[in-house]
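re the bet — no i am not wrong, look at it urself. input seq straight from the record:
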Amino acid sequence: MIKEKNKEQNNKRKKRHGSIPGFGLSMGITLTMLSMLVLIPLASILLYGLSLSPSEFFAIVCSDSVRYALRTSILCSFIAATINCVFGMIIAWTLVRYNFFHRRLIDGLIELPFALPTAVAGITLSKMYSNTGIPGKWLSAIGIDVSYTHLGIVVALIFVGIPFVVRTVQPVLQKFDYQYEEAAHILGAGRIITFIKVMLPELMPALLTGFGLAFARGMGEYGSVIYISGNSAKDHTQVVSYVIMQKLNYMDYAGATAVALVMLITSFVILMVINLIQIKQSKRTNNV
């Protein structure tokens, strides 16, 4: 019996290691690539930003152009991520719960914003929603201008952010047990009550994760926003990424680094919140 247990333990250890090289080599490659591509560039931004005096740093960050750009990016990203949570959940629900013609094709099209160059998306959206485009012409006739406004920025951020919500909610719906819904219906709950009381609590961590990812993507988006926003300082349609690029064009490296540092801190806070949500969800799943 003891020999059989030892053999089983050895087999489990072999399965854990697999065919990839040893832990030391794998960890060394991981740390090297992570340091060269992520840690060192981020550390350089942090060090250069901290080299500025507090008065210089806050003078750059609190300037009118940066403040308006931050407000525009945060507000538009928040609105777009909220809209993506609603429609992303509906899309994920449709793809998981219903069988229809070309479902796999539509499921694959969800990845299109990831594969499509963001500049191409920005040019296409700005042309469609301008006064000469078909949707833009109809909207302009009723007094709604999309291109070169804050609404255009929201439209572009919805386009690039909706895959995050769909792909985070979809696996949760696929693993959701139908017995909970059936039990709620047997107890007399309607569809709306069943969704709010039974399904929404299970979907909420995934929705919050998708919201955070879409919000973070919107905060740093450049290619799809740069054309449809108009980049007007007067109308406050400049986003943070455009302000950073503008400062680099004017050789203002200190200003660009200070704004980039603010974006870096914001990204870290968003990622920390997302990780806390995922940890909470994993603990809840393990307890169940």
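see?? DSSP finds 14 helices and no strands in the chain. told u. also The chain has a mean pLDDT of 81. so pay up
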